[in-house]
Amino acid sequence: MIRLCARAIHALDGLFPRVRVAGRDSNAAYAEWEYEEGKNLISRYGAQFGALEGTRVLDVGCGLGGKTVAYTEAGAEAFGVDISTDNVAAAVRFAASRGRRARFVVGDAASLPFADASFGLVVANDSMEHFADPALAAADLSRILAPGGRLFLFFTPWRSPLGSHLYDYIRMPWCHLLLPERVIEEVLRLALRKRGEPDPAGRAALLMDEFRTELNRITVRRYRRIIGGRSELETVFERLRPPKFESLRFLTRMPVVGEFFTGTVVSLLRKSDEAADSARHSS
């Protein structure tokens, strides 16, 4: 029954539009994509980022370092942190290839290896949904942020059409909400076999393990509850962006179902100046 259902889903999957994500060919290509994405973020959200010249910026979940290097080129004193030692090593190599002095460290977002109030801007792009404990991560991101500093968060919430993060293999929106995991794994196996994967079953099992362990299933509602519990953080703005067309943004504002049409949460937070006074009084 599972295989029959999976074959039907796999046959229909081609009817859905392909989600195009650049840089999948190699680590070098992905780092270049990150770099271009970093430049795009600076261009699009420059007013919210503020002046980067001389600002200490932390790129959380820096991946292969592309965005960190882009912040450095904009004049920031940029640091990248990632939980993966392989990613950090690749990021160091990418920065060196660009002749940039961005610094990279291995670290967990819930226990960052930085002093209190040490950054003027913290950016977590496509990271919030991967933090093992997003509430602890939010607390530590706030800790390292200087009073008056800004925290910029971009993430794909769980109920998004692309919330599975399996869109390289399954085009069907909301597949993670509509299909049992055993069916998803079989659809993955079929997709991988079609691509000529030597061990489609093994690769599908690995992808499902990542699906289960590397996504915290954070919803927009849970995110707002976490941030709402941090009195020192003020939400300057929040945007719920649809996954495809901006003209469909009105769907993200609909009660109850709005989360299902949200492709990306974009949120800018500011740490209150009073946080410094509170810290002094408590010490």
From TrEMBL:
Q: In the UniProt record, does the keyword Zinc occur?
A: no
Q: Which SUPFAM superfamilies has this protein been placed in?
A: S-adenosyl-L-methionine-dependent methyltransferases
One GO MF term: S-adenosylmethionine-dependent methyltransferase activity
Biological processes annotated in GO? methylation
**Residue stretches making up the Methyltransferase type domain:** 58-153
Q: Which organism is it from?
A: Eiseniibacteriota bacterium
Keywords in UniProt for this one?
Methyltransferase, Transferase
Taxonomy, top ranks, is: Bacteria, Candidatus Eiseniibacteriota
Name the Pfam families for this protein: Methyltransf_11
Q: What is this protein called?
A: Class I SAM-dependent methyltransferase
